[in-house]
Design brief:
alpha+beta, Phosphorylase Kinase, domain 1, Transferase(Phosphotransferase), domain 1, 2 domains, three-stranded antiparallel sheet, 8 helices, about 35% helix, Kinase-like_dom_sf, Toluene tolerance protein
């Protein structure tokens, strides 16, 4: 993590487009060159972010995903901006549209549900547990592959996920009504996942996707 003084931060921010902000300030900026700056603040005095900042987690998770050949943002720098009490990750965004954006269109790529099922199986078999997995965090790239964004809330292990972890991941995804309606519109997502993954039997997944 590199220190970034306030003057250099303001210079970097000049001309940026604010994509996300809240009452405490900017959260996501698109900079003039098209790269992104995502800012994190420590919400509690005592938290794991004190010794492992979310900006660094984001960067480390991108590196872990890249090693698994899973498309994700390209990290440029990780900063500590002491004057505004923020950590920040500077990255090139993953090009493409989120699945949620695609669902808003009249026409969708054929086989997208099955492709997503195979992608989730790849993640789980690669040891990737993405707690924030939902259709707004999965991108269909111009090359037609799926990738992940907003990956600070992600863990990469050496072994494939256990059944309990997979089921918990699916239950989290189904908390979003729009996602649930699309995923359960037919059996192609579940069938593609079951045909691709190496751990769960059909009875386990069907219980989660009921």
């Amino acid at each position: 993590m590199q220190a970034l003084d306030h003057a250099r931060y303001l210079a970097l921010r000049e001309g940026a487009h604010v994509l996300e902000a809240d009452g405490t300030g900017d959260k996501v900026l698109r900079l003039r060159d098209g790269s992104m700056l995502k800012l994190f603040r420590r919400k509690r005095l005592i938290s794991s972010a004190a010794w492992y900042p979310y900006a660094q987690r984001f960067a480390d998770n991108c590196q872990a995903l890249a090693l698994r050949a899973i498309p994700c943002p390209q990290i440029l720098k990780v900063y500590r901006i002491a004057e505004i009490a923020r950590d920040a990750v500077h990255y090139n965004p993953l090009p493409g549209d989120t699945l949620r954006q695609i669902l808003e269109r009249a026409q969708q790529p054929p086989g997208l549900r099955a492709q997503f099922g195979r992608f989730m199986a790849q993640l789980h078999d690669s040891g990737v547990y993405f707690r924030s997995a939902h259709l707004g965090n999965v991108v269909l790239t111009p090359e037609g592959t799926l990738g992940l964004i907003d990956v600070a809330d992600l863990r990469c292990g050496r072994a494939p996920l256990r059944r309990s972890q997979r089921l918990r991941n699916f239950r989290h995804m189904l908390r979003y009504p729009q996602d649930k309606q699309w995923l359960l519109a037919d059996s192609s997502f579940a069938e593609a996942y079951l045909a691709s993954q190496k751990v769960c039997g059909p009875q386990h997944l069907e219980g989660a996707l009921a």
